[in-house]
Amino acid sequence: MLQPDKYDEAMTLILEIGVKYPHVAHRIMEHLDDVELESIFDSYVIDSRQNRHGFHPETFSKIIALRRMFTFKSDAERSKFL
Predict the structure, then answer these.
(1) What secondary structure does DSSP assign to 62-79, as a single string?
(2) Which of 9, 17, 23, 64 has its CA 20 to 30 A from that of 54?
(3) pLDDT tens, position by position, for the chain (82 residues)?
């Protein structure tokens, strides 16, 4: 779930990501209120296919920043151990 005070910042990041990667921005927007969003973010930041070059560092950092604006059930589970 998107943290309410982060909505405008999140939309800005999504639009910026969409300049070079419209398919990524579209997929994130499609799943904003979906339980699938966490795994979508993971698929963008965890390399499971070695033949990829990955995102430009600036775009990668925007995806990471955007992911941090969301709260997922697994975040609460992880915090139990910190």
Answers:
(1) HHHHHHHTB--HHHHHHH
(2) 9
(3) 787 888 999 999 999 999 999 999 999 999 988 888 989 998 898 877 676 677 899 999 999 999 988 877 665 555 554 4
